Every structure is written in structure tokens, then in C-alpha cells.
What does this fold into?
Amino acid sequence: MISYLNGDIVDISLDSIVVDCNGVGYHVYVGKPQDFSYGKSLVYIYYQQKEDGVFLYGFKTKKEKERIVYVAGDLLALVVDTVESNKRHLGAKPAWLFPGY
It folds into this structure.
């Protein structure tokens, strides 16, 4: 099980981030990618293994992770709802990804 990733955030998209830890890039789904920034970061991880794959869900704080893991049965629905909401409100070029534009 993975508890957290301590590395550099090298990519941010509408529903995920990529954390580079010693040359390995971990694709992590996050509900609010705008809360993360490029560079050194500690990301708390909820690890989910299912028959169709392994999924990593990231959180900015340990407290946020613990709240979500407590209701883990609804985790995926929460993340998907948040991502879909971000896509509707942010459009194709989210402002937090392109500062100054």
C-alpha cells in the first residue's frame, strides 16, 4: 500500500497530476488539481486495486485523506463528480494551468 508520495509534480491536468519520485512518474487522480502546483510536494495517497487496474487518488492533507477514506465506498463517485464539475466550469484551458493568459 502507498501512504504518500514525496516528489515533484511535473504535470497537472483536469482530473489528475503526475508526481515524479526518483524517476518514476505516478499518475494520481485528484478532485481539485488547482490546489496543487508544480515542483516539490507531498501528496497523500488512497490506493485502490480492482480487477481492471490500480488507481491512486491524491489529497493535499492527511486530514482530507482520512475524511475520504472513512467513506471509501463513495470515494470514486466524489472524485468523478468533482472532475466533471471542474471540466464544465473551467473549459478547455483552465486558468490555474495557464497563469497570466
